[in-house]
Specification:
361 residues; 23% helix; five-stranded mixed β-sheet
Length: 361
């Protein structure tokens, strides 16, 4: 077995297919030997970051290499594998060193930035020069000088009152607090790394200049929230108001339309010129009588099988006392009286009951 060891150093985030090194030249092998020995890479990792081109004898990047994902906080970062050839057997260990690149911006751990709530620091009015207000804490997952951080104030309410340590992120007062100083102070701190090109992050620090906790609460609720959060909330409120207004107007129009439709229908029926068909109660129809009475009078006739033994009771006509007769209808009245005399005879085989009603058209 012949063994040889080679080592390469490459930056992270190299594109797939990028050249790492010439394995055949560095090991002193011929390209034909790589092909005849069926050279291949053996690694214990699940992901194979490199590929051996046996036709050219070179080693190239097979997968994107992220140093932070591969090694985390461990430095230096590297991975190893073996190049194996057969007939005769040869084993050549290869070690790849990964150089860090400034591909991650700083991450602010404190103060915690939230969209819905505001964190404020309190400074008493009796604070001396150099009073520690708070400390900005940030980290960078890169390594080396790419992880070196610096702090500086970008925008403050009163620049002559506070300063921030460029290396430690401590915010301190640089003079005595006076009554003319604003109660609410807003500081914007920029955190930058030392990479090339430099990456940065911004953190907002709210400060309340007050001596009592109730005064802090009254000022704490007045801090402006995140602009994007307020814009989204305003949009949803306007949208909800528009939807409710549209539904209300639609319902109102529908109700008014139904009311107008019903009113017009009633007016059409009221003003209709259709002839009115009179209603006659059953059994009291007018036949345009031809007798001496101006209207037809209906009678009920009741007959018994044996009038001598049967006891039939008939009520007197209810209209007998209110009957209006024409003076010219004397013949009819005499006829009715004769019929009544027949009914009054005890031996009469027929009993007759009459009901006279006058129907006026």
């Amino acid at each position: 077995m012949v063994s040889g060891h080679i080592r390469y150093s490459i930056p992270e985030e190299m594109k797939k297919g990028s050249l790492i090194g010439n394995v055949a030249q560095d090991l002193g092998l011929d390209v034909k030997r790589l092909r005849s020995g069926r050279a291949r890479i053996v690694t214990g990792e699940s992901v194979q970051y490199t590929e051996l081109k046996t036709d050219k004898g070179i080693l190239v990047v097979n997968e994107r290499i992220d140093r932070e994902q591969l090694c985390g906080d461990v430095t230096p970062c590297s991975f190893s594998f073996e190049v194996i050839l057969e007939n005769p057997m040869e084993l050549h260990p290869v070690k790849i060193m990964i150089q860090d690149q400034n591909d991650n911006p700083p991450q602010v751990l404190y103060p915690v930035q939230t969209g819905g709530s505001v964190v404020a620091e309190m400074v008493p009015r009796s604070a001396d020069v150099g009073y520690l207000v708070t400390k900005v804490v940030a980290v960078d997952v890169d390594s080396g000088q790419n992880a070196w951080l610096s702090y500086k104030l970008q925008k403050v309410t009163d620049r002559a009152l506070f300063e921030v340590g460029s290396q430690n992120g401590e915010i301190r007062t640089i003079r005595q607090v006076t009554d003319k100083d604003a109660v609410k102070q807003r500081l914007s701190v920029i955190v930058e790394d030392n990479g090339q090109p430099s990456r940065s992050a911004t953190v907002i620090v709210n400060v309340v200049v007050a001596d009592s906790f109730p005064e802090v609460l009254s000022e704490f609720t007045d801090f402006p929230h995140d602009k994007e959060y307020n814009d989204n909330l305003t949009f949803y409120l306007v949208l909800a108001l528009a939807v409710v207004s549209f539904l209300f107007i639609t319902c109102l129009v529908v109700i008014i339309s139904v009311k107008i439709y019903r009113w017009r229908q009633s007016r059409v029926l009221y003003q209709s010129n259709l002839p009115v068909i009179p209603y006659y109660p059953p059994r009291y129809s007018d036949t345009l009588g031809t007798g001496t009475l101006p209207h037809v009078y209906n009678y009920e006739v009741c007959r018994t099988t044996d009038s001598r033994k049967s006891d039939c009771k008939f009520g007197r006509a209810g209209s007998q006392n209110v009957l209006i007769m024409d003076p010219s209808s004397t013949g009819t009245m005499q006829r009715m009286q004769s019929e009544k005399s027949i009914l009054d005879e005890p031996d009469s085989p027929l009993e007759f009951r009459g009901v006279l009603c006058e129907t006026a058209l």
